[in-house]
Amino acid sequence: MKKKIMRLFALSTVLTCLLGAADGEPKEGVEYFKLEHPVGGVKTREVAELFWYDCPHSYELEKPLEDWAAQQSPRVKLVRIPATWEDQPDMNAYARLYYTLDQLGVANKKALAVFKAVRDEGKDLTTERNVLRWATREGLDAQAVSTAYTSKEVDDAVKAAPALRERYQVNEMPTVIVGGRYRTSQFQAGTAARTIEVLDHLYSNAPLNNRHFRAMVKR
Questions:
Q1: For residues 162 and 169, is the Cβ–Cβ distance under 8 A?
Q2: Which of 86, 107, 202, 215 could be stapled to 101 by a disulfide with Cβ–Cβ 3.0 to 4.6 Å?
């Protein structure tokens, strides 16, 4: 799975450069796509990011995405969804870590710390034992982490994660979905910085061309 994703990313980046999509206004069908089936029931002004803690491109996008979201007014609803496939145990384990931290209310606060541990320090955070060691070093309550890690709520969230990814029609990570209608990623845009530019364009312009979306924003 990892090698396939990396090959797809490299090919997409080359094609993007060849098409000259990195300059000027983002191009539909090149740097972003309109979902064939819009995601129903999304919150007003929602931006959903599907990511994986062991993905270098997810790591690269994390801080720029946080910074972009913090600058938006009215405030953007940034939803993070761990990307998983049922037959990928490591991805499901990292989804469990995310939902554990989310259960404790620290998923966003500790996001960069997790990425640094996994990507920079090479730590394996796919087992409860390793997660508890990491959490203790991060100043988290080990007992609270253990309770959340094995809770029914987290179990249910992990089991539902593959279907949630499919609902957002995502097959690579990271991918950003704007208003449940448009998607972009480094695969399309070529770089994390350009992904943020495309995201900003979509958030500021493209979704608002939809009458239903405008009505949602006014609520």
A1: no
A2: 107
The 8 Å CB, 24+ separation contacts for 199-204 are 199/47, 199/65, 199/68, 200/68, 201/25, 201/26, 201/32, 202/26, 202/32, 202/178, 203/45, 203/47, 203/72, 203/76, 203/178, 203/179
Q: Are 146 and 128 in contact (CB under 8 A)?
A: yes
Write down the residue that tokens 């007003």 correspond to.
44
CATH (domain of 14): 3.40.30.10
pLDDT over threshold 70, residue 209: no
Q: Within its chain, how far is the Cα of 138 from the centroid?
A: 22
What are the CA-CA distances from residue 68 to residues 16, 33, 78, 195, 216 (Å)? 23, 20, 10, 11, 22
Domain count, the chain: 1
Q: Is the pTM of this model over 0.90?
A: no
Domain that holds residue 50: 2-218
- Buried b / exposed e over 66-94, threshold 16 CB at 10 Å, is eebbeeeeeebebebbbbbeeebebbbbb
The radius of gyration computed from the CA coordinates of the chain, to the nearest angstrom, equals 17
Tokens 């900003």 belong to residue: 200
Beta carbons of 155 and 99 less than 8 angstroms apart: no
pLDDT digits (tens, 9 = 90+) for 52-66: 999 999 999 999 999
List pLDDT tens digits, range 4-37: 554 444 444 444 444 444 458 899 999 999 999 9
